[in-house]
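Final report, closing paragraph on structural work. Over the funding period we assembled a curated collection of sequence-structure pairs, and we close with a single example.
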Amino acid sequence: MRAARLSVLTAVAAVTAVTAVTGCTSKSDAKDGDRVINVTATDSKCETSKKEISAGHVELAIANKGSKVTEVYVLFPDDRVVTERENIGPGTKQRVTAEVKAGTYQIACKPGMKGTGIRQDLTVTGGTAVKRNPKLDKAVADYREYVQEQADATVPLVETFVKAVKAGDLAAAQKAFAPSRLGWERTEPVAESFGDIDPKVDVREDGLEDGQKWTGWHRLEKALWQDKKIGDEEKTLADQLVTDLEDWQKRVGKAEITPTSMANGAKELLDEVATGKVTGEEDRYSHTDLSDFKGNVEGAQKAYDLLKPVAQTNDKALTTELDKQFAALNALLDQYRSDKTSYDFVSYDKVTEDQRKELSDAVNALAEPLSKLAAAVVK
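Its predicted structure, as stored:
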């Protein structure tokens, strides 16, 4: 999860806007430069070079000219996420590709990765449809099935965790904690796209918005490992966790999924690793970070594998590099578990600073080429 989340705002009065949910895309006959929106982010401004663009693939060319790390989002009117790019450091540039259909959106910059962001409206007009790519249609359909399978498998594991919490069985609850999170970690960008579920189930204490009650996994994690106490409040919160994840389970099949959102989501999962798992901030009480780490990598690799047939045709050198870096990162993670079929990893507080640096370097080596996957898919 991110250090801070976008809260859900009152829906903007606008034309309902949805991204393409299959490999069908729209493009105008304009030059490539006309498909690029330059976004200049500072600590107090979010400037965009275009306020209107035709439907199809659009690329954000982001420059952070502020002093704080920032994030940039393309948002639906109800704050659901179309696409995002996190952890854009001061003085750095990033590019992200998205698919949009006609409607009204907002581009949001979040200096310091806090709050609801500085926003600019974006109007998307109709475009000219081009021939569908059946390989991308299949990739989206298969990924949608995968996401639903992960949600369906998560709820029973969470129920096992919650049963132990409600029984007051500290050891059993601790044992069930990490397994209950794997499906979520594999598909987190899809869950986050709804905006309202993630802050309920996966927020850390330092990510709370003003006035927000702390609920979810990490609130219970603190009780189990730091406080070593299960009271009536924790039992109530455990029930709420099941309710919230059942809501996710019901809604996840309706998520807007496109080939570019799959590719960008894979990169987001690596960002999750870089900002939470490698640093030890995610599971700071239980130190089960490596299990979450593996879940993020598996989710990213699933999206990549499904998109690979198209990406390989368009950019074979990129897929060769991605295959190499995924293999290297997975091999490195295997060093921290005795059984490759198990998610029982070494407690992260036992991982030395040098080892964390090695893991961080492997993540960065994969994240860089992975950031190019969306562009390769739409060539």
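Residues 134-166 form the longest helix (33 residues). The mean pLDDT is 88. We thank the funder for supporting this effort.
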